Amino acid sequence: MRYKYFKNAGVDVSALTVGTWGIGGANSAGVGWGEVDTKQSVAAIHAMLDNGINIIDTAPVYGEGHSEIVVGEALKGRRDKVLLATKFGTYINHFSGKSVRDCKYNSIEREVEESLTRLQTDYIDFYMMHWPDVNTPIEETMAALNMLKEKGKIRFIGMSNSPKELIMAAQKYAKIDVIQPPYSMVNQSHKELMQWAETQGISTMSYGSLGAGILTGAIRKCPEYDPKDMRLVFYPFFKEPEFSKIMELLKTLDKIAAEHNRPVAQVSINWSTQKSYVGTALTGVMSPEQANENCATFDWSLSEEEINLIDREIERLNIG
């Protein structure tokens, strides 16, 4: 396993993180990732940990608590060996079915206790604001997080899906240890933010590392997902013209993968994690077999020439 040092947090973190959005299944509005098997999910998490992964990311909004419950089960007997990341400030309104953002002091106090219960732990390592809340001053949110640190409920503070200006504002009130933006070959929209964060000692947990599965090479025909499937709701990759452009990119990834006798997913993971400004890349995992395959990425590396070849192709196709 490859590890990177998170400067502000002062901890070593595996270059891959167990991403658990998918194992949350669907929410009360039916939006999500379809049916999930809890036993299989726990086995997949265990396989990741057995391969040297030392961090798991989850959130209360993933399956409206189900993901955190599964992670809590998977962590039994292993909690002291794992860095645990979860989030706050986003939930599904059961009346409207819409996402609500609430990062008020009192809400954070309530949410952390609910997460601790579901996760069956008494502390959280990385506690992150899931999305910005335009109705709550950032100093109020940071005050709540500082209070939780003082009480030992959380160790480090993070901000997900947040612009540079908001992160800079938050830094006036608290030490920001980590950010979590999307990043992959098919989405480099936050590259400059990540490079800036590196200069601040703020580490990056990048999500969408495999483009919701499209960068594994397993999908070669445009799938007909349910309209409520998160791959259609949240990501643009399974719609034209993006789908055809990514299929063209996969031809280059196929050649590199074949030269190394490795699966395409490992090419995609190496491309991300070999960047200095990527601290750890979140990858969803549904089975022990997927876990073993993804973790075997770190048995080898892409050459600079191969990375440049991929980058030129991304630019030519105008992807991400």
From TrEMBL:
Gene Ontology terms, MF aspect: oxidoreductase activity
Stretches assigned to the NADP-dependent oxidoreductase domain: 16-312
Pfam families: Aldo_ket_red
GO cellular component, one term: cytosol
UniProt keyword annotation of tRNA-binding present: no
Keywords recorded for this protein, A-Z: Oxidoreductase
Keyword Cell division carried by entry: no
Protein name per the record: Aldo/keto reductase
Organism of derivation: Irregularibacter muris
